[in-house]
Amino acid sequence: MRTRRLRRTLPKSSGIRIIPLIDVMFLLLAFFVLTTMNLVARKGIFVDLATSETSKDLGPGTGVVRLTIDRQGQYYLGAQAVDDESMKALLANAKSRGVPYAVIDADERTAHGRVVRLLDMVRQSGLREAAISVKDQSANPRVS
Questions:
Q1: Angle value at C-alpha 115, between 46 and 73, nearest 5 degrees
Q2: Element (H, E) at 20
Q3: Is 108 helix (H, G, I), strand (E, B) or coil?
Q4: Fewest beta carbons within 10 Å, which of 25, 65, 74, 106?
Q5: Topology (CATH) of 64-143
Q6: How far is the C-alpha of 125 from the C-alpha of 134, rounded, in Å?
Q7: Residue among 65, 119, 66, 118 nearest 96 (CA)
Q8: DSSP class of residue 54?
Q9: Domains of the chain: which residue ranges?
Q10: What are the pLDDT digits (tens) for 10-28?
Q11: CA neighbor of 77 nearest in space, from 118, 42, 134
């Protein structure tokens, strides 16, 4: 009896198809980019500004100290929480650097007394002007 050896025949185009691999790599890349964008912590203080019909745009905010008061009445300079004494020192430092004015971003539910207290600190520091950020009717941030 004769044994017969089975031989596998390969198709002529038996190479690796690169185009589907590139497509899969782009899909994975897009998935990871979108996933990591959602995982990055947003570094900002979110405030709900009050609306105003008579606000005006001050233009680019170069040389401006931007102060924030959140809903609980906490003061912030940038993303850093600041107490009253530190705020006074930071405002005095801004005055010595020649900063002309301060812009206050206050949540509309902030206690009125906290906003007035911050305005007093700005005036005591010697800054020329203070403005309060508001939303106009089109919901764009502006200054009143």
A1: 50
A2: helix 18-39
A3: coil
A4: 25
A5: Nucleotidyltransferase; domain 5 (3.30.420)
A6: 23
A7: 65
A8: S
A9: 64-143
A10: 666 666 778 888 999 999 9
A11: 118
